[in-house]
Each structure stands twice: as C-alpha cells, then as structure tokens.
Amino acid sequence: EVQLAESGGGLVQPGSSLRLSCAASGFTFGSYDMSWLRQAPGKGPEWVSTISRGRGNTYYADSVKGRFTVSRDNAKNTLYLEMRSLTPENTAMYYCATRRKGLSTEKYKGQGTQGTVSA
Asked: Is the model's pLDDT at 26 over the cut of 90?
C-alpha cells in the first residue's frame, strides 16, 4: 500500500520556522521527483517546490524562494521542507506528492499537515 505521511506542521509566530517531513512507503521513493504543494484557506492548490530524483535538482515558487528549502533522504524514504521567516500568508495545508515540475497532477499525494502562522 502506497503511503505518504506528512508531519511537522503546527502553530508558529510570524518570523518563525517549521520543518515538514513526508515519510513515503509502498513505492520506490528514489525513482520519483517529489513535490510540496499547499492550499491556503479559501484558495486553490499551489505548487511550492520540487526536488528531482537522481541529482536532486530543486525548484521553488517565487513566493518561497530564498526562505524554503526542499531536500530528500532516499535511504530513509523521506522528503523534507524547511520553511523560514514564515508569514501569515504561508498558512496552509501542506502536502507532499509524486509530482514532476511543471505538471498539475501526481500519482500519489499525502493527506497533508497544517501549518499556521499567527501572532
């Protein structure tokens, strides 16, 4: 059974950091490009970042570039998203997915972890 289990969300103050994790199982994690997506309250889904299989090339939405860092540990089948200098606009449900950069669909997607930035 394929599983993508996000964790690490929570309530933090503006300017703080969060580190999200996504534990993958049931498929060959290292063979997939992996992405982080998010959906803020009342808004549509938004692509955040992608890390490629193999070389681990990274890509970011302009809105998070310089503040978010995506990484992966193929030995642990785990994807990460380090988020710094958070603002209330970063409040969203964050999902990991097996999505290639530039595409709008994915084969697998997790249930999400909520990140809330509020004073």
From this structure: yes
